[in-house]
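Customer ticket, subject: "Can you confirm the structure for Amidohydrolase?"

Message body: Hello, I'm evaluating your service for our small team and ran a test protein. I'd like someone to confirm that this is what the system normally returns, since I don't have a reference to compare against.
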Amino acid sequence: MPALSKLTLVACAAWAACTLVPPAAAQTAASGRLAPLVDEIYPRLEALYQDLHAHPELGFQETRTAAALAAQMRALGFEVTEGVGRTGVVALYRNGSGPTVLVRTELDALPMEEKTGLPYASRARAQWNGSETFVAHSCGHDIHMASWVGTAQALLALKDQWHGTLMFIGQPAEESVGGAKAMVDDGLFKRFPKPDFAFALHTDPMAYGYVGYRAGPMTSAADGLEITFKGRGGHGSAPHATIDPIAIGAHFVTDVQTVVSREKNPFEFGVVTIGAFQAGTVGNIIPAEARLSGTIRSYDPAVRRKLIDGVRRTALASAASAGAPEPELHVGEGGVGAVVNDAALVQRTVAALQAQLGADHVVQVPPITASEDFSVLGENGIPSMFFVVGVSDPKDVAASKQPGGKPLPFNHSPFFAPVPEPSIKVGVRAMTTAVLSAMGAKH
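Agent reply: Thanks for trying us out. I re-ran your input and got the following:
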């Protein structure tokens, strides 16, 4: 690990790692010093990353994580407010008049067991839906948080290069797509300045060193479905005396796919997934109820409405065809819209990223079919940009593309293991560059 003779370290009682205060000399650095500056601060970001990785927390339970990031930002001189949207963090730094630029990171991890074998792998457990589960940062939010802190440090070291207000938010519960709304409902844009621009990054299993972007839809809308089909239970030997909710549910699972294949334009993205089907206790009893849950995903609002309506209609028809009572439907409630990147902001930012990282390392990518509640910020009228940062070894990426090659572990895989140093360094350089570009957008 390189010597840190030029750095001032401030210990934090609630945190295993230390926080970093940029030295006065670094604060006058020109923007061309960004890469060596990131090299200088990286050792502390690595310690932060490993600690966050080893101590993940689930959505709205991120008390240790939020306290750690709050301590980091206070040590840098940010004004920090905790408990926004339950466990969210808002950190402000004012540097004269200019745009307010928001940078978001997520705080939460996933209810799953990590199987990477890393020396700092998580063995954490927590309560989730009434039972104990392993917890792991298998979506890369720990990379995001380390990059977030590093971006704050870099921007303060370069604060003679920009004027305006930094608004760094640590958002809870992204995985359940409820955290952004919770922060907005708790006054995110009333208690604090409403940003002129907003940015977020996400890990991607492409090769490290690369940044992916696109204008327009970047992630899909996601809507949940929870359906309880009601029947009349009885003995398995006498199905004629019952109304079988399992048969109704099975018909629904099959029939609902015709909404996707026959009612939606095949050139427009949309998918309905049933992820859980729960009914019965033993093989010789027909139960009285069958509960199904799943997701509906789309990019276009019109397609989103069509799919939601089609799921409802198919569920009602499935029950009616069996002479069953009307099912209990919760479809499209509490969903989240697609992340739609602002075209003008993307154009400016991409030019800056290409100058910083090299044009061949900033690539346009197709829209992502997964979903993200960063969309909530754009829906509040804030021009925003969500981009991805590669985290995989280029040799592994190349090997995976060969015939018979081993697929790369993707986000949410128990084997998902970003290569920390190049991933975090590029994350910091990319996000710092994006913010600097936005700060100059109004000048």
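A couple of notes from the result: The mean pLDDT is 92. The chain is about 35% helix and 25% strand. Feel free to reply with more questions.
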